[in-house]
């Protein structure tokens, strides 16, 4: 699915989300939208009985929320934002409209009404386009709603009160949060899940596509289709070009009548649809994005290095001054860093306070179970340094990534070795489940993970397969430090650490050899060398499990060119990603048969082959 063009419709506009709901903020920032948050002060007290349907009530409330913010911002700044988004979520059951409970008794009334029955969740959404004419605010509103049906199980009194006492129901429509504990009350959902959570993202994208699609004038020549501009397959009718020319005025019919068409700030009026625009090459937005994409990476890596996400862990919103004090940095500099992190969807910003998004809590806090903090430090350190001198590497024919570690251990200090191991550990913990379960490995009783580093994958394998013994085989200096890492739930007597050199010398005997070294996915000749050694060492019938980082599926389909993930492509040594056919040929050429390849966790190719008899 080609998603970016839809959200990109709003890229050059000042977008405001008129909502205090953290769920809405997260849904939209996860989708890549950049926006400011200005919670609405509109009191949700419209007269429900005066609306023909519950959904009409939700839509009107959403619209009033957005208009209040547009009006207030216009008054304050004398310039309204370009787009204000408002939303309102309600639950409708048996002719009743349920909003957020006012107290525990109210929550009890709502939840007992929902117990054992089906109800509808409506989210009304208003997209208000603003423009200022002669100092006056002019608005056009596009509005819609989405309905999702939810069925609750029968809830016992005890369960009901336990849930209410958890505190979760209080700020949620209908008194439950389907995304958290409330999910346990739900028997089934029909429709958009995110609509229940507070924002119908799919419908919103379709509306954007519809709003920003300018129909071709009758008789006008057909539009040029630029190869670099992907067609939108799900969000139909999005046929304009990327970049500046895509900031066309919304289509007629998309917005309510009664005001001027909004346009992107700092741009001149778009030319008419008379073919002139079609003769212009598109502005190279993608190219410009590639050119300065490193800035976003550096912001993320720097925020990790300064432990911004650790400071915000498990705390309510903190101001820039609070964070600056804790990280020992200037308030101005910290505020700028935090604002960009919020733009990048790493932090939430509301009322001048910052807090971690779910992604940051999961992966950027240093002691999180699935932390990638170590990877960030490694990328910010040796990898950043190597890329700074990329020109030299190209001239000299060296690999693009510093031969990080096991390849050149004698050059590494213990700290450098640990830095690499932390990166590898984070990636392994993140992906171990997907690698371990991509195929049924239960027929194997012994495995050897070559370059197994801290043993994170080995621990997952023994957890999944109760009969399996796993040897972690890696350089002595790595094995020596591996004990300092928490690789699994606890020490397992079925995981053995054996020092040696995977690229020379004898390999420990095993039924299954595993190669999964994601943090230093090296050049082809290295992998081929290791595979040849496995092929020579293992008996006929032994297995080989190989896992590598893979481009997104759509890129793979487009010929593996990895057009839109250069970072992934060069995570290795600058080689193009392999497709399933290439794995098959590679392994068959090395004496393996029955080669199967699969994708796992959206980020990996996992391949399993069996050593053929010589
Ligand atoms: O399963 C879930 N259902 C609903 C929610 C959250 O409930 C609220 C709905 O309230 P409302 O639409 O009035 O939005 P507010 O939170 O008050 O924010 P505004 O400032 O936009 O008025 C909403 O937050 C949903 O996310 C949920 O979390 N799970």
From TrEMBL:
Stored Gene3D superfamilies:
3.90.950.10, Vaccinia Virus protein VP39, Winged helix-like DNA-binding domain superfamily/Winged helix DNA-binding domain
Q: Which UniProt keywords apply?
A: Hydrolase, Methyltransferase, S-adenosyl-L-methionine, Transferase
Mark out the compositionally biased spans (Low complexity).
Answer: 559-582
What NCBIfam families does the entry give? maf
Entry-linked InterPro entries: COMT-like, COMT_C, COMT_dimerisation, ITPase-like_fam, Maf-like, SAM-dependent_MTases_sf, WH-like_DNA-bd_sf, WH_DNA-bd_sf
Which prosthetic group or cofactor does it need? Answer: a divalent metal cation
Question: Which residue range or ranges hold the O-methyltransferase dimerisation domain?
Answer: 290-366
Q: Which Pfam families match?
A: Dimerisation (PF08100), Maf (PF02545), Methyltransf_2 (PF00891)
Identify the stretch annotated as signal peptide in this record: none
Protein name (record): Probable bifunctional dTTP/UTP pyrophosphatase/methyltransferase protein isoform X2
**Residue span of region Disordered:** 241-279, 556-582
Span of domain O-methyltransferase C-terminal = 410-593
PANTHER family, per database record: BIFUNCTIONAL DTTP/UTP PYROPHOSPHATASE/METHYLTRANSFERASE PROTEIN-RELATED, BIFUNCTIONAL DTTP_UTP PYROPHOSPHATASE_METHYLTRANSFERASE PROTEIN-RELATED
Species lineage: Eukaryota, Metazoa, Chordata, Craniata, Vertebrata
Source organism of the structure: Odocoileus virginianus
Highest taxon listed in the record's lineage: Eukaryota
